[in-house]
Design brief:
Number of strands of chain A: 0
Shape of chain A: elongated
Number of helices of chain A: 9
Oligomer: homodimer
Largest sheet of chain A: none
Structural class of chain A: mainly alpha
Distance between the termini of chain A: 59 Å
Low-confidence stretches of chain A: 1-15
Strand content of chain A: under 5%
Radius of gyration of chain A: 20 Å
DNA sequence: CCGATTTCGGTACATATGTACCACCCATTG
DNA sequence: CAATGGGTGGTACATATGTACCGAAATCGG
């Protein structure tokens, strides 16, 4: 479908919307992330990516030498963005904020806008379980979370902030995945805050 | 490869190893689970499944009307087996066992023998996030865990066993996924026991 | 302004894939 | 024993897919 948008004379999109150069690379990766979220990694084909990005098929092979490369680059981009988002969230919070609540909100933020981005995240992490090439990215990603959340918990009075952050983060991941898989949507903030306080207190 | 095992006269496998009838159905599903673990859901093709199961291609379409059906049936089987395994583990433990440790060991058991089965589990759960048809299975699966672990925590003195089980389970899932994704293998039992005691105590 | 290099985009092609088809085997039943 | 029907397995085929190729357009250094 969509036979490469023949000419699209006057009507239709500005056609100048088509990104060029390096921006095109990112547009393709955005398409990959969207597809992974909606239909899984197996639905990522050169043709589908091109179609979603509204770019010609050949652009996918020009910017990425293989499908493998396309997927790893997408994971890297997702990680980069989410880490930046996390740091921003924490940095821009008022100093008066409760560190535990702040930490949990920062973890839970991506839930709201795009449930899809969450699926993408976990799908790509799983991919890392199989492809060693992705391990490093997965590691950086989790490390960034551990550092950020650990610092907050330390501020909250935890005596073993690293271990506490690990558990809190894991619990959040687990709850999110279960929620995705079952389709429910209970409130996650309350139970996580309880856990956070329990951990920090019991130290 | 393995061109349907032409005749395999005397050497080679007994050829009678080939399951027939309904057993064949399960052999195919086993193959699906193995493939998902090793190469992801996208690697599940009729041909590959047949090859791994050492059965003819047509057997896959005879027992399952579509690839979709093949995947959902595999998830159901994995869930059924794991739930039975969980209950057995708990039921066969001595009464003197510490309920918290028992609960955590029961959750962590599948780690040891087949790291692959874990990948399969999470991969299929993610699949459920996209295919509503799988939601019910995912729900039963998590519910079985919640009930079992909840009962143990109640025995351990928890005043809100359901909530505690939810958090403990989530933390275990999160830690396992991170471990899979990064390739590390730290000890998970200790931190989870700490969390379990912290939750039960703080009630 | 010009040549070189990068980027673009249409197309071709070998292979993989889902699935249908159909002939055969074999146990059960009447 | 014949018929019947579920099970088995080889094969065909239309379509999807990864990727190579190559000429045209854009961009940039001089």
């Amino acid at each position: 479908m969509v036979p490469s948008t023949p000419i699209a004379p006057t009507t239709g999109k500005p056609d100048q919307a088509r990104p060029r150069g390096a921006a095109r690379r990112e547009a393709l990766l955005d398409a990959v992330l969207l597809i992974v979220a909606e239909s899984g990694t197996d639905a990522v084909t050169h043709r589908r990516v091109a179609e979603v990005a509204e770019l010609p098929l050949a652009s996918t092979t020009y910017w990425f030498k293989s499908k493998e490369h396309l997927l790893t680059a997408a994971l890297e981009l997702a990680a980069k963005r989410d880490i930046a988002r996390l740091r921003d969230d924490v940095a821009s919070a008022p100093d008066s904020a409760d560190p535990v609540v702040l930490a949990i909100d920062a973890i839970l933020t991506p839930t709201e806008p795009v449930r899809t981005s969450l699926i993408t995240t976990y799908a790509l992490l799983l991919e890392a379980a199989r492809r060693p090439a992705l391990r490093a990215v997965a590691e950086d990603w989790t490390q960034a979370y551990l550092d950020t959340i650990g610092a907050l918990l330390e501020r909250a009075g935890s005596s073993q902030p690293h271990d506490d952050a690990e558990l809190l983060l894991a619990a959040a991941d687990g709850l999110l995945i279960t929620q995705l898989a079952t389709g429910h949507d209970a409130d996650l903030q309350a139970p996580l805050v309880r856990l956070g306080r329990s951990l920090v207190g019991t130290s």
